[in-house]
Amino acid sequence: MSSSNRAADEFTRLVEIMATLRGPDGCPWDREQSIDTLKPFVLEETYEVLDAIDAHDHAALCEELGDFVFEAVFLAQLESEAGHFTIADSLQRVADKLVRRHPHVFARDAGDAPIDSAGQVRTRWEEIKAQERGGAAKPRTLLSGIAPTLPALLRAYHIGVRAASVNFDWSRAADVVDKIQEEVDELREVVAHGRPVDPARAEEEMGDLLFSVAQLARQLGIEPETALRKANDKFTRRFTTMERSIADSGRAMTTMTLDALEQEWQRAKSQQRAE
Questions:
Q1: For the chain, how far is it from start to end, CA to CA, in angstroms?
Q2: SS3 142
């Protein structure tokens, strides 16, 4: 059996299992769920997939992808029961979209200019999306398709991608660094010594700074949400190493000076690098 045939069989089996769980003789918990109650589970599975990717844990990724697909099937089952659409409709839409947005693969024309770089593909993708929005019944703007529920740093990244698709962008990463320095200077002015801090302005300037940092990440080909998640994990590992070392020495962190804590922090960094 080919891998595609096996995938089709297993996907059909999953859809049928989900229908049974929601059926009259199915699971009481599954039958109580709605698209709203499933939101935290969808989010949880998303981050578990990301954790497996970050760890390059292929066995975990295999399992987490199954859980992720299950949430999609669960949501589609609920929508099917309500008469809105089926999972087949969702699959058809995404398949049609992929074919439509990859004309250089599925609809080559002898007169078309060759597309041989990821950047060209991205530009063409955004052009086709813009054309689709123009032909939609409900007018949409370039940025309206970005989900406001995305993590703010990731949303800032995607806003920059969309703006760049119409050439509204810095020409060089170095220019974004200059913009970041400008935002830092403005924030420094807000928190200058001897002056009361204006919370509203501080929040605004901090937002501008974070938005600019997200654009620098984009210019450098870095997805900022992933970069920050990895930095969070690195800090957590080092802080935990430092905390355990201090506890093993019989000291308490709350009684130590900042200089002493910094020495322990540097020791933890060296230990992790060695490992």
A1: 45
A2: coil
At a CB cut-off of 8 Å and minimum separation 6, what does 27 contact?
A: 21
Tokens of 2: 């080919």
> What is the C-alpha separation between 81 and 72, in angstroms, rounded?
14
* pLDDT tens per residue, range 117-129: 777 777 777 777 7
Please tell me the pTM assigned to this model. 0.67
| The length of the chain, given as a count of residues | 275
Question: Of the candidates 102, 120, 119, 103, which has an alpha carbon nearest to the alpha carbon of residue 111?
Answer: 103
Q: How far apart are CA 178 and CA 183, in angstroms?
A: 9
Chain segment 195-206, per-residue pLDDT in tens: 788 999 999 999
The answer to whether 160 and 214 have CB atoms below 8 angstroms apart is yes
Under a CB-based contact definition with an 8 Å cutoff, are residues 124 and 115 in contact? Answer: yes
Count of alpha carbons within 13 angstroms of residue 7, beta-carbon side:
5
DSSP string, 158-222: HHHHHHHTTT-S-SSHHHHHHHHHHHHHHHHHHT-TTS---HHHHHHHHHHHHHHHHHHHHHTT-
Q: Which of 42, 48, 26, 47 is nearest to 74 (CA)?
A: 42
Whether 52 and 229 have beta carbons less than 8 Å apart is answered as no
